[in-house]
Amino acid sequence: MPLRTEEMTLNMGPHHPSTHGVLRFILASDGEVVHSCKPDVGYLHRSIEKIGEKMTYLGFMPYTDRVDYVCAMNANWGYALAVEKLAGIAVPRRAEFIRVIVGELNRISSHLVALGTMAMDLGAITPFPWALRERERVNDLLEEICGARLTYNYVWIGGVAFDVPAGWLEKARSFVDSFERMIPEFDRLITGNKIFHERLVGVGVIDRETALGYGISGPNLRASGVAWDIRRDIPYGIYPELEFDVPVGACEAGALGDCYCRFRVRVREMEESVKIVRQCIDRFPHEELEFRTKLRRVKPPIGSVYVASEAPRGELGFLILSNGTEYAERMRIRTGSFTAMSVLEKIAPGLMVADLVAVIASLDVVAPEIDR
Amino acid sequence: MQQLLDRILASLGWTGEGPTQIVYFLGMLFFAVALLRVCFTPFAGVVSWAERRIAARMQSRVGPNRVGPQGILQWLADGLKCVLKEDLIPEDADRLLFRVAPYLVFCGLFGAFAVLPFSRHLVIADLDVGAFYVMAITSLVPLGIIMSGWASNNKWSLLGGMRSAAQIISYEIPAALSLLAVILAAGTLSLQGIIRAQGWSPADWFVFRNPFLFTGFFYFFIANLAEGNRTPFDLPEAESELVAGYTTEYSGMRFAFFMLAEWANLYVIAAVVTVAFLGGWNVPAIADGALLTLLEMVVFALKSFAVVFVIIWIRWTLPRLRVDQMMLVCWKYLVPLSFLNVLGTAVWMMIVPEESLFGRAFAWALVLIAALIAALFGWRVRKNLVDAGVGRFAAKPIS
């Protein structure tokens, strides 16, 4: 008697432990092997773009925290960059330094969350608390500078909200010094692990063409071998003055653009962020005291602007159409997670369920950033 | 026992000639279950507490420390909480199988306690086929797990159940074969007999007795990790993949039974490893009577909890294998190697008699090498801590 078999439809999410936030995937699977994977987005849609059209330019800033709450500083910064360009607002040099320091610290904490959850999704639980322990120290630093630990609302249009407190820079330096020594410790715990290698190497390969075709950006794009970093290639702030490398997938094992490449690129980016923070602290303009251009209202001329910045999850771009009032005519946000999510449909067929979990984790998608 | 039952029944107004065999049998069964429940649940409880505290320590957390001294009674509080929870059965579940499954898992593991020898005298039943009995009764576990996976009517549970069945049945083979090598060396299936065939000094333990038993120790340990669904083989309940695997739909007391069984399993694994390879309760004859029994119990507890610690340590360090990799490890490596082990042990026993000078020298050399490796490992861990500046080697924070 021939066995009758059929595909099983698995509903992964919206509340599944490995879907960070509220994601949903509709899988057609043959037991363990995934035949197709259809991402279903929109569970965390909060109309942030529409709110951006109903709030004044200054009042919208706290909402940008919620675009990507894992790296709110970078989201604040991306929005401030767009409005500053649109309205022609100058930023004091002291504020530029502070922005780079907090932005890179936030990048470290965001990558720590990404790497920790990735290890956890592969079944290794301990790296996650280790990563969070370091992230707590970043949170402490940022709390001291702006009073908040997650949604900072710190980078304002025309500068930053508060000046750095006395002694803060030394604390930041002591953090990056000790954090630099923690990276090898983290590597010893998980990166060199044989099982970890077996689970990541050669899994979920996104080749160069696919990555470019789907508009993937940030660490995921660099892991596929494309040396593209907005901080270096369309520089903003004081990045042109700083020296840092752009880590590209080195294909240390397996194929270029696999999960392991994405993991390694993030680890190396944290090392680069440490370098950047240290340079900023060394060259900090202590004599220039102004940290914010005082603004009562922002009323840009009619026109439009698109400014991209390099957030931890890739290109974070704000497209603003101005109609000459205090309110934007149209606010559009481009995020890295959205495109990273869309590529899953192409690379998922043929993977096992466990691999799919690894791929989702390695793409570092964050649900609020997809839906906005 | 029978007199006691007679008296109880008489006081209840039993007018018959005395209890029939059926009543007697039921009474004994009740007594046995109560004994298992009362005497061996604390093992699972203590192991669960140890696991949570050790895991917390590894992860820079505190862990449960509120109920009892250092939180050692946390498992009682959790058990009580689970009893008080609503008992949910999904609407479309197979109600009978759903209810039966946790008890099968529970019985399979707690049944194994019946033959565990805690000292020369302290053992419930010293069966002639003790090793065989352990392998057999723990085979109830995959039955219960696949039953729960099927009965829950949930795809994640089903996947977990299927994985578990495939995994446990596969790894039964290398585990049994590695144990077979020990049985060859000991010449008996009785767990007490296996312990008596070893001695108190490390060189007398089966693990260091010959090279094949030494490697067999690792095969047995790995295979048992897989049978116990422990990391890196925790695929049946892989949280990040299968939500909670076969326990997804369980709650309240039934869930508590699964968890209790899991931790009991952890102890059973450790105890069987201790018995088969690490010399069991053997102590040098420096005392007699009650003191000797106490010493033996302490030694057995120390050894088995050391193994428990290693298992917990592995669990909180390693990632999880994928299904195909898990199968590959078993069929491509463990099964052929453990076959080789059985042959090798037999040949070694023929060529090198146990008490020969070469045999003794070889055992002591193995002990020495193992001690050196352990020392090197400790030194390396300390060096890493100093290099990273963590724990008590951390730099003073700037405040």
| Main sheet record of chain B | none
Give the fraction of residues assigned to helices of chain B: 55-70%
Helix-strand pattern of chain A, N to C? EEEHHHHHEEHHHHHHEEEHHHH
Distance between the termini of chain A: 52 Å
Tally of DSSP helical segments of chain B? 14
What would you report as the Rg of chain B, rounded to the nearest angstrom? 23 Å
Which spans of chain B of ≥5 residues are poorly predicted at pLDDT below 50? none
Decide which structural class fits the backbone of chain B.
mainly alpha
What is the 3D form of chain B? globular
First-residue to last-residue Cα separation of chain B: 69 Å
What's the level 1 CATH class of chain A? Answer: Mainly Alpha
CATH superfamily of chain A: Cytochrome-c3 Hydrogenase, chain B
Number of strands of chain A: 8
> Uncertain regions of chain A: pLDDT < 50 for 5+ in a row?
none
Per DSSP, the total helix count of chain A is 15
Based on the structure, what is the oligomeric state of the protein chains?
Answer: heterodimer
Q: What is the H-and-E element order of chain B?
A: HHHHHHHHHHHHHH
Largest sheet of chain A: 3 strands, antiparallel
Structural class by helix and strand composition of chain A: alpha+beta
Number of domains of chain B: 2
Assign the CATH topology of chain A. Answer: Cytochrome-c3 Hydrogenase, chain B
General description of the model:
The complex is a heterodimer of chains A (372) and B (399). Chain A has helices spanning 48-54, 61-65, 72-87, 93-121, 127-146, 168-191, 194-200, 208-213, 219-223, 230-233, 259-282, 336-342, 344-347, 353-363, 367-371, and strands at 8-12, 24-30, 33-40, 155-156, 159-160, 303-311, 314-322, 328-334. Chain A is globular. The longest helix of chain A is centred in the first third of the chain and has 29 residues, at 93-121. Chain A contains 15 helices and 8 strands. A 3-stranded antiparallel sheet of chain A has the order 1-2-3. In chain A, strands 6-7-8 form a 3-stranded antiparallel sheet. Chain A has 372 residues and is α+β, with helices and mostly antiparallel strands. Chain B has helices at 2-11, 21-58, 74-84, 95-112, 130-137, 140-151, 155-186, 191-196, 211-227, 239-242, 252-277, 290-315, 323-351, 357-388. The longest helix of chain B has 38 residues, at 21-58. Chain B is globular, with a radius of gyration of 23 Å. The mean pLDDT of chain B is 82. The A-B interface holds A 8, 10-11, 16-18, 31-32, 119-126, 128-130, 133, 167, 170-171, 174, 178, 181-182, 184-185, 188-190, 193, 195-196, 198-199, 352-355, 357 and B 55, 58-61, 155-156, 159, 162, 231-232, 234-235, 238-243, 316-325, 384, 387-390, 394-395, 397-398.
